[in-house]
Amino acid sequence: MTTIPKPTATTAPTGEAEVSDEELKFVIPGDRRIEAANAITTRAMARRLPQLIRRSLALGWQVDRAAVIALLGVQLLSGVLEAFGLMATTGVIKPLIASQHISGDQLRSAVPSLAVLSGAIGLRALLGIASTALSARLAPRIAREAELELLDAATKAELAAYDNPGYNDRWDAADRGVEVSRDLLTEAQYILGASASLIASAFVLTAVHPILLPLLLLAALPKGVASVRAARISYIASLATTKDRRLLGMLRWYVVDKQTADQVRSGTMAPFLLDKYRTAGARIDRTTDQATWRSARISLLGGVAGGLAHAVVWVALALLVFTGQISVAAVGTAFLALGRVSAGLDGIVGYGAQLFRTGMYLDDWADFIDEAGGHRIDRGSQAPAAPTVVRAENITFQYPSADRPALDDVSLEVRRGEVVALVGENGSGKTTLSKILSALYLPDQGAVSWDGTDTRELDAHATWERVAVVPQAYACWPLSARENITLGQATEQGDAAVLAAARAAGADEVIDGLRSGLNTLLAKEWWGGQELSGGQWQRIALARAFHRPAGLLVLDEPTAALDPRAEHRIFTGLRQLAADRAVVLVTHRLTNVTIADRIVVLDKGRVIQHGTPEELLAQQDGLFRELWDLQNERTGRVPAPTNSNEHVEPNQSALF
Ligand SMILES: Nc1ncnc2c1ncn2[C@@H]1O[C@H](COP(=O)(O)OP(=O)(O)OP(=O)(O)O)[C@@H](O)[C@H]1O
What DSSP character marks residue 341? Predict the structure, then answer.
């Protein structure tokens, strides 16, 4: 049973020589993204920045156009004011240094420039506040939109994706993209601000002397290259630690979740689990420490080279003054403009490197969304009616990480009005087969058809609308009792249908005992709702399936947690439920399968027996009879095959 989606782990086949611990199976060798990130150059980043700024603005545009327009306006105005302020500086300095003694007239002539300068400074401060407020408004909205798009994409992935090594990693990386998406706009905005400031100051600096700007640009280059490298190292380290971070997330879940809390205590597992946490944490630290040192070394080199290059610029400025190429008054302006251009370049380079790294995460996010982590549902578009017959023909299915097929050349059919039981020992393929019949998985070979149409041709979501499943591990949704049964899909009959389904499942007694009936929240740990016992939850899960207007009903160990009276109620009512549904029943309680019209016995993914309960019980050397006898041995009961399905046409029970 699960109440919340728990973090999953990929058990990837690694085959790595150094793998000595199963835990290390979380590591997937040869991550292509790391190779791709390694190949990234400064030039690539320079090309990438405008694209990333466009992307951040586009994301902002999606959530709040007015705020994006205002933000751009603010940045533009701020740049213009910066240029005016710098030019006014010359107007202020000039009269002050014109002679040794400053007269009142000189001071007065500086006043207009001083007014422009202070006005520009004041207005820029106001614009700074406005732009901070605008990005504070946009950033969380962008992150939420990014998260919604990601969640939507995840629901559009094939269920089989979860069994694929790499899917969970791609999900994690994409999730990181969501986390950093809120930084995207801020970084883009800083770059825009720094660019506006740079352009304005560059314009003023060029007016002072044309050589200064190219010199300064060259001086900024070493730091730029170093920043890009550092950003790349940090991104690669983050990718390399993805699997361990997922392991930490999973351990956190197992350590603190209510569902495992009793076992953590009774099994005195806390030190053991925390030790695993520490080990994985230490691995992450090692990787990030290495990355931090490498980044620091590169940044230091960049800083030293940049410092020397800046010294050259200042020497050039001094030479220009000494050779009389620029006036002393202009030196003041040049001095300020150089500082501004230099700060602007630093801003572009620094935030550019950050934005570049954010962009790499965002690529992971965008890639996931584009192809649902590489497993986008790509089936036909036909919407099926409730099926009259569901047929599997020679199907084979192998989980990606498995070394043998879970199902091997299996054929069977289930018709509306009949109950087909799948029986077999643990791991024989029963659950897998039921998932393939209900189109949750597609077979690797062979075909499953609904009324003659291959499930590959059917629209997946429309197909699942015709399926009701009670899985072995059913969800205990942290919702009201009503929503737990309707799953938000109320029928025209409303609560009458909900209560009818609850009665059929024995959940009516559960609901009667709830303090607010169907309105009661069933999630104590979340919102102070009411908690149910395991069996009570199973009754709710059954009511959920019975409420659904589905043509195919799949019950996988549907009464494992029920008391004998509740179990009896389910199985005596099942025949009635099967009147307008095809029912697939998976159970180990063989006395219950006597209700079935036909039984299919699986062993290691192959059908080894099929027939009516009477036929299979009569086969003394068959697996079914053996399991039956084992189950009844301790009670001393004798097999008592009775056929409760007289109405079934004999030819309907054909298995081919
Ligand atoms: N997600 C998965 N990834 C890899 N192998 C899987 C996965 N799920 C099941 N298997 C394997 O497929 C085989 C069939 O599993 P399945 O769950 O269908 O068996 P089952 O008959 O329903 O077993 P049980 O009676 O224990 O519920 C088993 O060998 C199992 O280990």
Answer: H
State both tokens at 569: 């109620």
Burial of 120 (0-12, 13-18, 19+ CB in 10 A): buried
Cβ atoms of 36 and 292 closer than 8 Å: no
Spacing, Cα 642 to ligand 1 middle (Å): 31
Q: How far apart are CA 98 and CA 569, in angstroms?
A: 104
pLDDT at residue number 14: 38
Backbone angles phi, psi at 292, to 5 degrees: -65, -45
- What angle in degrees, to the nearest 10, is found between the helix axes of 270-322 and 258-266? 120
Q: What confidence score (pLDDT) does residue 524 get?
A: 67
Average pLDDT over all residues of the chain: 83
Is residue 213 scored above 60 in pLDDT? yes
The SS3 call for residue 247 is helix
Q: Whose CA is nearest to atom 31 of ligand 1?
A: 427
CB distance 571 to 594 below 8 Å: no
**ipTM value for the complex:** 0.98
What's the rounded Cα separation, in Å, for the pair 632 and 591?
A: 9
Question: What structural domains does the chain harbor?
Answer: 22-374 (1.20.1560.10), 379-466+552-656 (3.40.50.300), 475-549 (3.40.50.300)
Q: Residue 592 C-alpha to ligand 1 middle, in angstroms?
A: 22
3-state secondary structure of 527: helix
Residues having CB within 6 Å of any atom of ligand 1: 163, 399, 401-402, 406, 424, 426-432
Measure 455 CA to ligand 1 centroid, in angstroms: 22
- Measured between alpha carbons, how far is 4 from 259 in angstroms, rounded to an integer? 10
The total of other beta-carbon atoms located within 10 Å of residue 102's CB is: 13
Q: Is the pLDDT of residue 96 over 80?
A: no
Q: What is the pLDDT of residue 9?
A: 40
Helix H or strand E segment including 603 = strand 598-603
Mean pLDDT on 294-305: 92
Share of the chain above pLDDT 90, in %: 37
- List, for residues 137-177, the tens digit of each pLDDT value: 988 998 999 999 999 999 999 999 988 877 887 888 888 88
| pTM for this prediction | 0.74
Edge-first strand order for the sheet with 582-586 is: 467-470, 552-556, 582-586, 419-424, 598-603, 606-611
> If you measure from the C-alpha of residue 341 to the centroid of ligand 1, how many angstroms do you get, rounded to a whole number?
64
pLDDT in tens, 456-515: 999 999 999 999 999 998 888 888 999 999 987 877 778 899 999 999 999 999 999 998
DSSP assignment letter at 385 = P
Residue 346 has pLDDT above 70, yes or no: yes
Q: Is 421 helix (H, G, I), strand (E, B) or coil?
A: strand
